[in-house]
What does this fold into?
Amino acid sequence: MNTKRNIAVAGATALGISLAVSAGVLAHGYGYGGGHMMGGDGYGMHGPMTDGEGTPFVGHTQGLGPVWMLDLTQAQRTELGKIQDGLRKQHWELQGKQQDQYTKLRDLNAAETPDKGAIDATYDDIFKLRRQFVQATTDARAKADKVLTAKQRQALTGWRRGGPGPCVTDQG
It folds into this structure.
């Protein structure tokens, strides 16, 4: 139990750092990605994260947060996996569209006389795509919450508010 709590704290710290860096990158317009610090397969920079017993936390970077640290039934894991897969597909599609906009922006800025109106419109398109990332993630979290029990949602909410972490062993 203590191992899970330690992992939850370490994960929260890493997530906080990632979000802070990503927010800085996005706010200042650096980079061409969606601000992702980790791979879309749920692996961090140093390989898969596990619960200390070898069970990987696959997908924790896809917007469902620490839900994978809960003591889930197989049915819950299956349903949450479907939600996560749908979110991943949405994010990849949006990221492709965002890359197209960054390419357009690059070309507009490289022109001998940059078209301010076209540049502003392209930034508007980029911000709309970023909003769609947030909306897709919010929708996926709402779907995931419906899969969880009241006790699991309570543990997750407590963790999101700085509590000890979602170390729930009872699905009830």
